[in-house]
TrEMBL record, chain A:
GO terms for molecular function: branched-chain amino acid transmembrane transporter activity. Signal peptide: none annotated. It comes from the Bacteria. It is found in: Cell membrane. Its main location: membrane. GO terms for cellular component: plasma membrane. The chain crosses the membrane at residues 12-28, 34-54, 61-82, 94-114, 126-147, 159-184, 196-212, 241-262, 298-318, 324-342, 349-374, 394-413. This is Branched-chain amino acid ABC transporter permease. It holds the Pfam family BPD_transp_2. It comes from Flavimaribacter sediminis. The keyword Transmembrane applies. It is a multi-pass membrane protein.
Automatic annotation (TrEMBL), chain B:
One of its GO terms (cellular component) is plasma membrane. It comes from the Bacteria. GO terms for molecular function: L-isoleucine transmembrane transporter activity; L-leucine transmembrane transporter activity; L-phenylalanine transmembrane transporter activity; L-valine transmembrane transporter activity. The keyword Acyltransferase does not apply. Belongs to the binding-protein-dependent transport system permease family. LivHM subfamily. Pfam families: BPD_transp_2. Its main location: membrane. InterPro entries: ABC_transp_permease, BCAA_transport_permease. Keywords: Amino-acid transport, Cell inner membrane, Cell membrane, Membrane, Transmembrane, Transmembrane helix, Transport. This is Branched-chain amino acid ABC transporter permease. It is found in: Cell membrane.
Automatic annotation (TrEMBL), chain C:
This is ABC transporter ATP-binding protein. Residues 4-234 form the ABC transporter domain. It holds the Pfam family ABC_tran. One of its GO terms (molecular function) is ATP hydrolysis activity.
Amino acid sequence: MEGNLFDRNRRDLILFAGLALLVAVIFLTQGSVYSLRMLVEAGCYAMIALGLTIQWGYAGLFNVGVMGFIAAGAASSVLITFPTNPDFWNSNGPQLVGIFLVKLAFSAALLWLANISGRFGAGRRLRGLLIVIAIAVAYLVLSAHMTVMAEQIEANSGWIGGLGLPVLVGWIVAGVVAGIIAWFVGKICLGLRSDYLAIATLGIAQIIKHFLKNADWLTRGTLTVSPLPWPVETPSGGEFIMARASYLSLVAIAVVIIYLLLERAYNAPWGRMMRAIRDNETAAEAMGKNVTSRRIEIFVLGSVLMGFGGAMLIHFASIYDPSGFLDLNHTFLIWVMVILGGSGNNRGAIFGAIFVYIVWVMSEPITLALFDVIRTYGVAWFDWEPPSDFNSRALQMRVFVIGLTITLVLRFAPRGLLPERQARH
Amino acid sequence: MNDLVFFINKGLLSGMIIGSIYAMGAIGVTMIFGILRFAHFAHGDMMTLGAFVTLIIAALLASAGVVLPCPIAFAAIIPAMAVTAVLAIGLDRIFYKPLRNAGARPVVLVMASVGVTLMLQGLIRLFAGVRARDMFIDQPKDIFQIPFPGATRAVILTEPQIVLIGFTVVAVLALHLFLTRSRLGKAMRAVSDNPELARITGINTNHVVWATWIIGGGLACAAGSLLSMDVTLKPDLSFNILLPIFAATIVGGIGQPYGAIAGGFLVGFCETLAVFNWSVLLRPIKDSLWFELPRNMALVPTEYKLMVPFLILIIVLIYRPTGIFRGRVL
Amino acid sequence: MSLLKISNLHAGYGQMSILKGVDMALEAGEIGVIVGPNGAGKSTTLKAIFGMLNITEGSIEFDGEDITGIRSEALAAHRIAFVPQENNVFHTLTVHENLEMGAYIRRDDFSRVMDHVYEIFPPLKEKRRQPAGELSGGQRQMVAFGRALMIEPKLILLDEPTAGLSPMFMSQIFDRVIAINKTGVTVAMVEQNAKQALAIAHKGFVLANGANSFTDTGRNLLENPEVAKSFLGG
């Protein structure tokens, strides 16, 4: 066992050293400005990947809606931190939003009452019926109000603008919002079989994206919001290196803190219990563990990290564009990071995130170059006429490769490059 | 009367069309779920794949100078279904079977199917691009206007829609006969019911798995092709069609083909009726209403159409996770 | 030569071993009963025959052929039938379809066997068009027996056929086991109700901690004071 542990540590060391070498090569060949950007983004992805690895690796929850949590977190952070829009505050907008919030609170109370109606003697069926009615009423009331509100705000002030609060507050709220959404999803699905969570998260991600894209009053929709504030000095006057380096150190600190906390939790009784549930649900249940609520806990926690990481990512890009959230980049890429790095291993998630992100960024020029060769020779040798959208098609190759990587890793290296440290029970 | 015709066209007929598509997709998903025990996320892209196979076969037939009394694409569906079924079995052999044999948890298979869907998506778009294509390569589709008594507007049905409805009826009947009369069909139900018992009874699981993929792949191809003929062929079905199909599957009860059919139509109708502008129907009696009739009175704005299957899904999961036909919750 | 011969069987789930040297021999036409305390490996022995767990040592011979570690799908072809303790019918299939599935591997005409099963279990004939899941516990047990008989088995394995049934049904089940045995079918069964079961057994096997502790005829075991003291509750 001792030797085994030593081997593993050596393996970690070699892999991380290799990664450092790769980063150094990129710094030398691509320049610091470019490389710093890549590292910051990779760091944000690492945060998101940590969120996913605790959901999947600690608890075996299959979340196909990572994009939704990132998008929701990013949007919340934009609303918290972006400077205020005076037109909005001078119009009847705040009043409309206020009434909306009151109605929202009212609906939530209604739903809560329906939910606990069991305590007042309502049977399972009646309770279900009450919940359905509460959802329907809430939906009709809120959607009617929202239609009017959206029309008026768009006409009077374009959109509601932000609150102008500090960026760190925005990031924390991003995590909280993502966590609240996760709590609802988890409450509904986590008592049921694992596939249902996958289906529901897929759905919620699509709906969040649709909503953010179409709710012009809230997010300016396709008009996008920029420039987003930074928690550090923004690169004014071309001072990219300093600005990006300080952003990078902030991201790195956040990732390290979360990593250390997660490591502690993993080895604490809480983490052991999570693994016990993952590996043998029936046994854990028989021992009197409340499997469902433990799962909700970890699902919420993971989603908080995703929202937080998503906010960091979008603030760095400095532009909020709801159509920029893609299943491929913001869900499946992260899955590849987690399972390739080694699910259930936090170091694996960080390694996977940085490594895969570098490969991902590099893959665009490489694919284009590769297909350019194909085009050149295809034209020269076979008299082939390439289609006009050849370049955009070529990039689809990356979708294929992501899919292939997922299936290959599942089959041939299910434990990833940095396997989980504790043996599965 | 014209408003009623409008309702028939935009509400009932569209609901039936999209419901048939969902039903055919959901039959495959529910059988895969029941027999292989995982949610098949690659079903949407399998539909797109089937539609492309149909297009390719139609183009081959057309270039071979075949002339048929009906549009070539219709004739091409049958061989395309066979090809898609074979491809589906191939995908199972390469990607799912090894995991099954290694005793992987169902959720790992779900993940593998996500991987497969990305691969299909990438390949299709790589070779075909993302632009829309017309499935009718030899002649434009016929549009029938059926006069409605007492109205100046006509009920409008297109050729592919008629074929789709006819095909759905035939497919459902054939499936019913297969599942209740044939030895293999009964074996499929048995495996879906109790896989362990089926094994010790000596039922050949391989045959059952093949039959599942043949039915699932064939129907996915037909649904994808007919949908593309009704509109256009675009390689963007995947996740957008997956959600309503999963909703239909779960509403109908997992492993219940009849439930999937009912669920497909339910989701289809709910979706169309939710985005239907009800003020059109109320217009004739607008003077006797106590409120002013708004211009648009849809329950859900069209851009949030995806909300409908999702809400149905959530309600079923809360209220009756076994679905209306009492499927299984594993 | 024995019809079923298990020698020094070691088996378990994954790494965990449960059977540590089980020996059993049954002649054609006999009833063999496996009894023993909970966790002794009774049902596990049946499952090991049925290829449901890892066999690490020892062998299982059936009718002169080595069937150690055979896949469960292949056993029906050897005309070995198994009636599990629970979940032993196809719930959504009708009674008739359940019996048809029992005969899945047969490509010949099995209507004669089907009639025979309906003769032994008259209630099934009445309910042949009903889904098996809607029947009572006792009737489901009949469906399970009937399904197993459809291949005209040489050997039938029963896993606690009386578990969860009322005492009245219990004696009915034992009567049926005897009746089935009279038609020439060898029976190996695991039972909690050791006394009643040993009373009808030609051979009895008392297991403890995954190995035989007594092996004798049913009658001798019943009369053995040591067995009575430690396993039959005085």
